[in-house]
Structure formats: C-alpha cells, structure tokens
Amino acid sequence: MEDKTPRSAPHKADELLDLLLDALAERQAARSAPVPGRAGAPRQEATRQAPSPAPAEAAEAQEAPRAPRTAHPQAPPAARKAPTRPPRPGEEGWTPPARVPSIGMDRLLLRFLLVIAGLVLVMNVPVTTYGASLARALPDSAALVIRNGLVVKGSGPEIYVLENDRLRWISSMDAFEHRGLTWGDVHIVEDAFLAKFEVGSPVHVLLKCEGSPHIYRLEGGEKRWIRDIDTLLAEGHVWEDVRPVDCAYLRGLP
After folding, report:
1. Closest CA to 183 of 227, 144, 234, 126
2. Are 141 and 182 in contact (CB under 8 A)?
3. pTM over 0.70
4. CA dist., res. 76 & res. 71, Å (int)
5. Domain-by-domain residue ranges, the chain?
6. What is the pLDDT of residues 47-65, one digit of tens each?
7. Suppose 132 and one of 100, 128, 195, 200 were both cysteines; which one would form an S-S bond, judging by CB atoms 3.0 to 4.6 Å apart?
C-alpha cells in the first residue's frame, strides 16, 4: 500500500492540468469563432443609417471636385485700432498749414515809428549857438504867454527876462545861473517882438557876505563895490538880485 500512494498522486495532478488546458483552448476557440446569424447585421445597419446618394448627385460630385477653401486674411489688431485724428505738430506726418498772405502791416508800422523817431530827433537837436532846439524856435512869438519871468532871445546874442513889461538884459552867465535858468527856458522870438517892450535895467549878480555890510556887483569875473543903497537903487538894482555868498569866496574875487 505504501508503494501505490505516491505514484497515483502525480498522475491525478497531470490529468487535472490537461483538463484545464483543454477548457482554456475551447473558450479561446469559442471567442474567436463568428456567431451565426449576426455577421451581416452590422453591414445592414450601416447601409440603413447611410443611404446611398442619388446617381445625379454622385455624378456631379465626381465631375466637380470641391474647391479648396481659402482663408480670408484678417487685419492685425494694430491696423484695426489705427488713430483717426490728424497728426499734431511734432508728430510724424504733420505738415505746417499754408502761410496766410500778409498785408504789410509790420512794414507800415516800422516806417511810422522811424518817421516819429526822426521828427523827435529833429525837433530836439540844438540849432542855435546857445543850444536852443527847433521845438523852442518854431513857435510864433504871438503864441507865447506874456508873463513876468519870461526869458526871450532875438537874433542877437543877448538874452532878456521880462519883468513888469520891461526887458532886462541878463549881463552874464553868472547872473543867468544865479536865477536858476536853463537853456530850455529860453524862447527864440522875432526882433519885432522885442521892440514892443521897454528896456529895463540889466540883471547883474550882486554879492554880499554875512560878515560885511558891503554889496558888490560881479562884472566880467571882477567885483565892483556899490557904495550905498541909494546908488544901488539908482542903477536899477533890487534887493532880490543880491546873492549871499561865503566871505572867503568874496575876498578871493579880484
């Protein structure tokens, strides 16, 4: 009994393996074999779902092949958003506007200013020996306001001051400056205008210092002593003509 048991066990295992292999082979053969009655079903369903086209349509489709679709070019985004306003000054493409024709106003204004400047220059340039300008010489003597203190000059070198309807000759430049006159105060008149008035006493420079009672008259850079008040009045002088000066200056005059 011991000899039969180990030999029968491997024999049974081999039989079991053979049976398993046979079962697997049958299943594989069953899966690969087509099922009868179902082989033509897919073809019939396909023919039912997609009917054949008509003969005319099929012929047209064969004769006229489809034209290839051409893609329309699309504009880039930058071209779509191009600015519509005109270019401004300084930008690319800007051109200056056409120049408006001038009427010559600038030239006319320049000429007008030159004429005015020339007239002002001519009227104020000294034209006489004593520096009187043309603006002082042109007005007629009849246009002058006759008043005390009016300074006039005729054709000669003498200068007169009108006081109390009398012409007083200003004897020297010292007397002229002593009265605070300038050449702008001198009016050029005709000799006939001077002849309308009487001639009064000349205007001299009378000098006096505080430390001395004496009064001197300055003539040609030299002083002349006037003795007393009667002599002063007899020569036609007035007290307003007396000019107070420093005693040292008075002593220094010849």
Report:
1. 126
2. no
3. no
4. 15
5. 134-199, 205-252
6. 454 455 444 454 454 554 5
7. 128
